[in-house]
Amino acid sequence: MLKIGWFSTGRGPGSRNLLKAVMDEKEKGNLNIEISFVFCNWDNTEENNPRKEQREIFFDMVRGYGIPLIACSWKNFKPDLRKEDNDAWRIEYGKILRAETGKYNFDLGILAGYMLWMDDETCNTYDMINLHPALPDGPKGTWEEVIWNLMENNADAQGVMIHLCTEEWDRGAPLTYCGFSIRGKEYDGLWSSFNEKLKNGGLENIKNTEGTDEPLFRKIREEGAKRELPLIVSTLRAFAEGEVYVRGKALYAGNGKLENPYDLTKEVDASLR
User: Cα–Cα distance between 193 and 210 in angstroms, integer?
Assistant: First the structure.
């Protein structure tokens, strides 16, 4: 059985949906996993906590599943040090995080909507994975930055990947991915409209007037977003069933190191049908 350490900031429905999707598959017998703990970087005692109610719903959900909850407030932890030296603060917070999570046995950590940048030592100590909304050779940055980049560069494809967490944010080795075309009958008219607006006003004007409501942008985002949960579930299944595993911060299948990330497009597409 694959033992998972779950790291989440618990900000809202997205965090709950991700945990529910995984637990639903586990309860159906489709995922041979155990979530050893959920670590949250808030404990809901903080002042100025705008998502307190959402986070309490998340905490109740975790407890309802019988999963140990570790809540360690980043806001209440050495605030003076955080103001003086954020890098030093991150190192100290990482020590507390590892001390608390190290009490539990787990094989793989997953950042499931975890909004703090992990310190280097934690990235080196644990094998942890994170989702990035692009193909392995695609753009870096936030999902908004990724999609604007694809549109500006007239791209043909988009995807979602799971990568290892390393000291370099969003630069860890890609492990698994799924892809989809952003061309064809559902896209051609959207591309034509976008390119016409691009020619007449430029990209910055489109960003300022329509933003993420621009039809081509919205279509690409919708198609990517609906693949995120299935990719996470398919990735955990591949690890749980021993199809792939991490050794020395690299991905292996059987006794061989994989030179390329593991393509789960067929599995993800099947789950969407």
Answer: 13
